[in-house]
Amino acid sequence: MDNPNIHNFIELLHKTHRAEWEATPKIQDSITWLSDLIEFLFPNNRLHKQSTYEGILKKNQIDLENILLSYLDPIAFDVEEKVSAFYNALEILYNDLRADATKIYDNDPAATSIHEVIVSYPGFYAIAVYRIAHKLTKLEVPILPRILSEYAHGKTGVDIHPNAEIGVPFFIDHGTGIVIGATSVIGQNVSIYQGVTLGALQVNKELAEVKRHPTVEDNVIIYARTTILGGKTVIGHGSIIGGSVFLTKSVSPYSHVFNTHQLRIDVKQTIFD
User: How far apart are CA 64 and CA 32, in angstroms?
Assistant: First the structure.
């Protein structure tokens, strides 16, 4: 290539890639760490000897440290402290996820056991990755939580931003097409079905620090394909939101909100000779 424009472009490309590469954890390493952690908490491939648990967990901890050190300044960001805080909270995270799995089992007549939920339900997997990513977000770990949540999004069709606040227990049924925005707040004992969106009324970069997504209080059920928008929109506790509802305003506690479109079925009788 003798074209100087090509040389200049390649030089710019390399500088840009180097800067971005140095500021980003390796995606495959991040996914491997996540998979190992979930396998440790909820083993499916094989059951380890109890004597090996501590070593497996220690390796997972070292892997997280190495991931963070690969793209963060160890002086500005205390990697050891953050990693320690994450693993100190692991028992609470595990108990929360057991509660999530139990609620899914209790609410889904097709589920034959809690273990079936844990190893095969995409809704549970999406919740598990969300809770891991959310904990990292609370510890102010950059970028890595989004990589984890987008990986889960690709596997399950459930898009939960790691900044969202979601209480325990939480029930996702089927899951495909669910979107939960970054400033969403969801209370305890909430159930959400496929195709539900908790979104923003406006998409504007200037609103990055503003609450843009709804608040869903405790004991709410939101059925399939419903869209709820706006940071000031509050779904009062104990409410039931029916399928295919579009909401941009708050509803009081214990409300029942349903789509009023009526389906008409005309039956034409066929006479056989």
Answer: 10
